[in-house]
Amino acid sequence: MDRYIQAPISEEDAKSLRAGDYVYITGTIYTARDAAHKRMQEALDAGQELPFDVKGNVIYYMGPSPAREGRPIGSAGPTTASRMDKYAPRLLDLGLRGMIGKGKRTQEVRDAVVRNGAVYFAAVGGAGALLSKRILSSEVIAYEDLGTEAIRKLQVENFPAIVVMDCQGTNLYEEVLKNK
């Protein structure tokens, strides 16, 4: 089923999404990869604020290539989500509503998705150039010294993703294997 949703994502929208839904996201999302997640974890451990309010927001596991002239961002394909699995449950417990990446997630992430009414989306790997066309603007908001791993605030329009894990605990990857 095709769904069009706004980001930040409302609790109602997140709870209505089902594994296998094709989703087109419009609004604000944030990027963060391994190094940025490590810094966010360190900030939380030190009792400091995060660089952005995670409540209701979406983190896209992506590190872009340099932007071509006239474009806000270069190729913007997803990175492997499992590298963020040791950080994701804590962010989900703080109100993170969605994650976009590629690949499988741990049981701990799945439990946190269900516990918090969140969702894990997959973006198509290898389609970074096409995905970048759905990004209207890109602004580094934290950890600029990390280069491509800095946290960016993106404005997206009809950014395509597939619900892989919904808040009922259904995992599309497992469902596909069951039906083989």
TrEMBL record:
Gene3D superfamilies assigned to the protein according to its UniProt record, in alphabetical order: Fe-S hydro-lyase, tartrate dehydratase beta-type, catalytic domain (3.20.130.10)
Pfam families: Fumerase_C
SUPFAM superfamilies reported in the protein's UniProt record: FumA C-terminal domain-like (SSF117457)
Keywords of this entry: Lyase
Record carries keyword Endoplasmic reticulum: no
InterPro entries, sorted: Fe-S_hydro-lyase_TtdB-typ_cat, Fe-S_hydroAse_TtdB_cat_sf
Superkingdom field: Bacteria
Gene Ontology MF terms in the entry: hydro-lyase activity
Domain Fe-S hydro-lyase tartrate dehydratase beta-type catalytic: 6-175
Family note: Belongs to the class-I fumarase family.
Name by which UniProt lists this protein: Fe-S-containing hydro-lyase
Organism: Candidatus Egerieimonas intestinavium
